[in-house]
């Protein structure tokens, strides 16, 4: 005679699983709006807190003129400028061309003529604030002439093409990292070579589009391609390395660092001086900010002041490669 099978434990198990599913739904419903709010805050906060603050301006003028100008600008817009006195007109122009200052000002007391140097290649806001400074000096009866030393290209006079760089730099690195993590588990060499190959070809393609396709970039094409490749590789290798150690959770962590920190603080559109400090400076130590600053230096400033950005990108790439290696060693030990 067969023994009847009790259905109570099975029913209880189904109810338990269903209860857990509803808890998961509740957690997702509560968590994702928080993530959306944080993402919005990450992009809006730097924009609303941005503005002129201690902008470095090289100046060559008699001391009384420097003092008067500093007092007048502080009264109109406190701490907007940080005037750096230099010895000659050539030094003023050189400081702007080498990215030591966002603009420059020289004054000829004999003729009452002032020359203001601007560099649009630093970012859109700086020529505008220098133009406001010129307007204030003209209101005092001075003759002011404007000289642009690092203009954007004729095909992109507003520099709007650079604003799109965040997409290939961020998502190019993250997508390649996700692919390397899911397709080549336990294969560190495949991940390293794959990430570097995607970055190299991606940098070449993006540089070709921006340089030859739309005329946004005007510097050395191969240096621009290398800078873009290093920017993609810096993100890709680090996120791939985190994925090697933590799995897809590591890829998620890398995505958070890229989307919530590296991209909003990069200053791609405005340059890092315009962002609230110290966040603007911190952004230059992240891959996207370093790549954007480097690309401006190559394209508009004859490669000046790019050494720091090359170093930052190299360090991120090295850290990513080490993380991939450590993940590979750990996986081999676990398998053994």
Automatic annotation (TrEMBL):
Key word Transmembrane present: yes
Superkingdom of this protein's organism: Bacteria
TM helices/strands, residue ranges: 22-45, 161-180, 192-214, 226-246, 253-275, 310-329
Record bears the keyword Transmembrane: yes
Keyword annotations from UniProtKB, A to Z: Membrane, Transmembrane, Transmembrane helix
Name by which UniProt lists this protein: Membrane protein
């Amino acid at each position: 005679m067969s023994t009847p099978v009790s259905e109570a434990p099975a029913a209880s198990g189904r109810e338990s699983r269903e209860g857990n599913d509803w808890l998961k739904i509740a957690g997702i419903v509560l968590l994702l709006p928080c993530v959306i709010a944080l993402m919005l805050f990450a992009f809006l906060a730097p924009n609303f807190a941005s503005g002129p603050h201690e902008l470095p301006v090289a100046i060559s003028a008699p001391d009384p003129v420097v003092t008067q100008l500093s007092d007048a600008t502080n009264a109109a817009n406190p701490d907007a400028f940080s005037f750096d006195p230099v010895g000659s007109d050539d030094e003023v122009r050189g400081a702007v061309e080498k990215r030591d200052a966002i603009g420059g000002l020289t004054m000829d007391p004999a003729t009452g003529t002032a020359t203001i140097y601007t560099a649009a290649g630093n970012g859109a806001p700086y020529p505008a604030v220098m133009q406001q400074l010129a307007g204030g000096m003209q209101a005092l009866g001075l003759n002011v002439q404007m000289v642009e030393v690092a203009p954007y290209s004729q095909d992109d006079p507003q520099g709007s093409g650079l604003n799109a760089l965040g997409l290939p730099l961020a998502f190019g690195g993250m997508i390649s990292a996700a692919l390397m993590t899911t397709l080549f588990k336990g294969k560190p060499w495949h991940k390293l070579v794959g990430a570097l190959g995607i970055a190299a070809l991606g940098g070449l393609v993006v540089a070709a589009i921006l340089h030859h396709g739309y005329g946004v970039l005007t510097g050395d094409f191969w240096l621009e391609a290398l800078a873009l490749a290093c920017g993609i590789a810096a993100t890709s290798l680090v996120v791939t390395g985190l994925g090697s150690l933590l799995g897809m959770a590591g890829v998620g962590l890398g995505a958070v660092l890229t989307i919530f920190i590296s991209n909003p603080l990069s200053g791609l559109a405005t340059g890092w001086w315009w962002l609230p400090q110290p966040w603007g400076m911190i952004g230059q130590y992240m891959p996207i900010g370093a790549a954007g600053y480097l690309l401006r230096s190559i394209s508009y400033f004859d490669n000046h002041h790019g050494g720091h950005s090359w170093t930052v990108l190299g360090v991120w790439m090295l850290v990513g490669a080490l993380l991939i290696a450590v993940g590979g060693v750990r996986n081999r030990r676990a398998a053994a």
